[in-house]
Amino acid sequence: MNFNSTAGGGQTSRTTFEFGRTHVVRPKGRHQATIIWLHGLGDKGSSWSQLLESLPLPNIKWICPTAPTRPVSLFGGFPCTSWFDAQEISDDAPDDIEGLDASAAHVANLLSTEPADIKLGIGGFSMGAATALYSATCQISGQYGNRNPYFINLSCVVGLSGWLPCSRTLRNQMERSNDSVRRAALLPVLLCHGSGDDVVAYKHGENSARILSFAGFQNLTFRSYDGLGHYTIPEEMNEVCRWLAARLGLQGS
């Protein structure tokens, strides 16, 4: 199944992005939360759906979309699945606002159909984590980068081996709005990063956590894993499970 999305609801977008197949992992118990999980550069949603289905979180519905296939500057314009264009992988690289807005809007559209009593979250790995963090900044500012309104109320955000896009403008956004400061303080964020990551360097994950904290994200947890490369391990996923169960107040099966 293909999904078309234009940036931030399509009011100002110049490009239509065609998203790939979305994989859904149904909750095994009572449905209490829905989390969108975003894959890394060049990957697809099905890669993560198998792992997420095995986690001891029976009350969570996982939605694993697939990014559009598009030319990526990092690879000399070679096309692959990518949530946005990246010239380099770091927290201070040039930002593809149109691509980020389109992916954040696609995620928001997927969450918008969930029942009103279900808690909503976004998580991801690598570029997926970057997109999840961008969605978090859209929520706290109440708008996408193109200034179209952002309506989703997130209960949690998880980022593994990722980085924060648009970090240079975040402080300015926060300084203009007391509502943004209040929303940032209330949003739980978990960031995890391996010290041996040779794709998204550990310093980028650590710096992203520092910027978010300085910007007012008071409910932020940063976990580092000694020697871990650009992949996940059971220890890290166990931390994610414990953190989600506690922050979302998941109860029983």
Topology:
Elements: E1 3-6, E2 16-19, E3 23-25, E4 33-38, H1 45-53, E5 60-64, E6 69-72, E7 78-81, H2 97-111, E8 119-125, H3 127-141, E9 156-160, H4 167-175, H5 178-186, E10 189-194, H6 202-215, E11 220-225, H7 234-248
Parallel strand pairs: 4-5, 4-8, 8-9, 9-10, 10-11
Antiparallel strand pairs: 1-2, 3-5, 6-7
Helix pairs in contact: 2-3, 3-5, 4-6
Report on the structure:
With 253 residues, the protein is an alpha/beta fold. It is 34% helix and 21% strand. The chain has seven helices and eleven strands. It has helices at residues 45-53, 97-111, 127-141, 167-175, 178-186, 202-215, 234-248; strands spanning 3-6, 16-19, 23-25, 33-38, 60-64, 69-72, 78-81, 119-125, 156-160, 189-194, 220-225. The strands form three sheets. A seven-stranded mixed sheet has the order 3-5-4-8-9-10-11, with helices on both faces. A two-stranded antiparallel ribbon has the order 1-2. It has a two-stranded antiparallel sheet with strand order 6-7. A hairpin with a 5-residue loop joins strand 6 and strand 7 (78-81). It is globular. Mean pLDDT is 91; it is low at 1-7.
> How many angstroms separate the termini?
31 Å
- Mean pLDDT level: 91
Strand tally is 11
What's the overall geometry?
globular
Helicity, as a percent range: 25-40%
Order of helices and strands: EEEEHEEEHEHEHHEHEH
> What fraction strand?
15-25%
Radius of gyration equals 17 Å
As laid out across the biggest beta sheet, the strand order is 3-5-4-8-9-10-11
What are the segments in which pLDDT stays under 50 over at least 5 consecutive residues? 1-7
Number of helices: 7
Largest sheet features: 7 strands, mixed
- Structural class by helix and strand composition: alpha/beta
